[in-house]
Amino acid sequence: MPTTIGRGISNIMRHGTANFGITGTDWQEKINWDRLRTYRLESARARMKAHGLGAMLCMYDENCRYITSTLTPGWNRLKPGLRYALLCGDAAPVLFEQGDIGAQIARHSPWIPEENIRYSYAWIKGAAGGASEQQVTKFTNAIVEEMKRFGVAGEKLGVDFIDINMIGAFEKAGIEWVDGMSAMMEARSIKNVDEQECMRIVAAIGDAAHWETMKFLKPGRTENQVTAHIMEFLFNIPGMEDVEDVIVSSGPNTWPNWRNFTDRIIQPGDIVFMDLAALTWNGYKSCYYRTYCVGKEPTQEMNDTYEQALGWLYDSIEAVKVGTTTKEIASKWPSAKEAWGYEEEDQAAANLWGHGLGLAQYDPPVISRIWSLDHPIEIKEGMVFALETQHGKTYQYGVRIEEMLIVHNDEVEIISNFPVEKITVVDPM
Questions:
Q1: H or E element: which one contains 367?
Q2: CA 213 – CA 80 distance, rounded (Å)
Q3: Contact 22/201 with Cβ under 8 angstroms?
Q4: How far is CA 91 from CA 266, 291, 406, in A?
């Protein structure tokens, strides 16, 4: 075990017994949803104003949810233009929902004034031609109308997504549009106490899923079967909304990391790792790798490789504290050339890195030697992110480890609790 684990790192706290369950009752308030909604809306407003914006147009799912606290169904995620939201000054957000679905919004989301629930002028991103131009013209006219209604017409409009049709229509309408994604990313980067509790719950679900994986794994199962089993397990959990991906890789698929699942049959002695990539509980997302060895004890070489990756991981965790930067964290990792002989860091883009977690799987900060050494970001209290490392031997085996953490003023709280000190051995002969 790397010495960095055994040092008793003073600023790292592993989250243990403080999680009491995933649901609140009438006698136990766990998450104050009203406070959470208010916090997110006020944070977005504050960053919008700090950037000199009169209004903010949110078309990405996570941003729309951040300001409206409404759900974007799976079938229209990643399709900016089907539903979107507009925030003008100090007014309540305006939600443009697809057609008469807005009636359900009025029923389920009473914090949105009914007069602020409008039908959208929907189009699919990337669409071209006359039909798209027609819809974008109507879409643009409606944005202008709302900006006039709330007295911010003529002020800068921040947008988190833009396509060629929007650019043309905005120009015709005289809308001065600028980057709005930066403001939203800044707002989303700091989680309040309720969002932090949501993240603990997400991590606890991840713990349970890894325990279930450990029980299910055995030689003869395929990567597909393991993935299907864990997907079923997750969707039986109350509050589970979506699972972007369960990555199960085994044997030669683990290095280079395939980041996929296939019909490969798992063999005795195989390394298997699983990533819970954006399991989503009430909007909040995970990222959580663990490494297993199936049917046999791992070789000494495998253990040594794991120990190296674990040392890289905990060296970087030790560097996390309020006031430091992502540069200090990324500097704890070896260069791609040192570790694997790559000529450029981009060749190892996701081998050693970190990323924020929240309503999106990649909230700020995003940490990598590729960019953090030259473009550092300050670590602040309330940030929630994952750090992950991997190592391996080409087409033979690879290991990957990931921890989820919350940054507090005087400590780092690790909220992923499945054992990490060594490779988890399952179903040994």
A1: strand 363-367
A2: 35
A3: yes
A4: 56, 48, 32
297 secondary structure, DSSP code = P
The answer to whether residue 8 scores a pLDDT higher than 70 is no
CA–CA gap between residue 61 and residue 74 (Å, rounded): 10
Measuring CA to CA, which residue among 297, 275, 272, 289 is closest to residue 221?
272
For residue 367, CA distances in Å to 60, 70, 263, 353, 361 come to 22, 29, 33, 5, 13
Q: What number of other Cβ atoms are within 10 A of residue 376's Cβ?
A: 18
Q: Return the half-sphere exposure (C-beta side, CA atoms, 13 A cut-off) of residue 17.
A: 0
The packing angle between helices 130-149 and 164-173, to 10°, is: 50
Element (H, E) at 355: strand 352-356
Give the span between the Cα atoms of 299 and 275, in whole angstroms.
22
What is the helix (H) or strand (E) element at residue 291, kind and residue range? strand 289-294
Place of tokens 């684990």: 5
Q: First-to-last CA distance in the chain? A: 24
87, two tokens: 């925030």
SS3 category, 295: coil
pLDDT (tens digit per residue) in 184-196: 999 999 999 999 9
* pTM score, whole prediction: 0.91
What's the CA gap between 107 and 268, in Å, rounded? 54
Cα separation values, 285 from 20, 47, 219, 276, 333, Å: 19, 23, 30, 9, 25
Q: Does domain 33-188 have CATH number 3.40.350.10?
A: yes
The arrangement of strands across the sheet holding 84-88 comes to 117-119, 94-97, 84-88, 55-58, 157-159, 177-179
Backbone dihedral region of 420: left (phi > 0), alpha (psi from -120 to 50 degrees) or beta? alpha
Q: Looking at residue 263, what DSSP letter applies?
A: S
Distance from chain centroid for Cα 6: 30
- State the residue for tokens 């890289």: 312
Query: Which tens digits make up the pLDDT trace of 310-358?
Result: 999 999 999 999 999 999 999 999 999 999 999 999 999 889 999 999 9
By three-state DSSP, how is residue 21 classified? coil
Nearest to 360 by CA among 237, 239, 188, 238: 188
Q: Which two tokens stand for residue 293?
A: 């060895």
Residue that is written with structure tokens 């000054």 in the block: 89
DSSP state of 115: G
Structure tokens at 345: 């860091």
Domain spans of the chain? 3-16+190-426, 33-188
On whether the 3-16+190-426 domain is CATH 3.90.230.10, my answer is: yes
